[in-house]
Please model this.
Amino acid sequence: MARFSIAEADMARIWICRKCKARNAAGVSKCRKCGSRYLRPKNKTARAKK
Model:
C-alpha cells in the first residue's frame, strides 16, 4: 500500500458516518448527509476479499 503515498495520506483523513456510510472531510463534528455525530475514521488497511 505504499505505492501511492499522497493518495494514502488523503484516504487517512476521511471520516465515515456509521449511520448512513457517507464519506466526510477531515475534522468534521457531524455528518454532512444525515447530521449524525457518530463518525469513525476510515480504515487504514485494505481488507482482502474472500
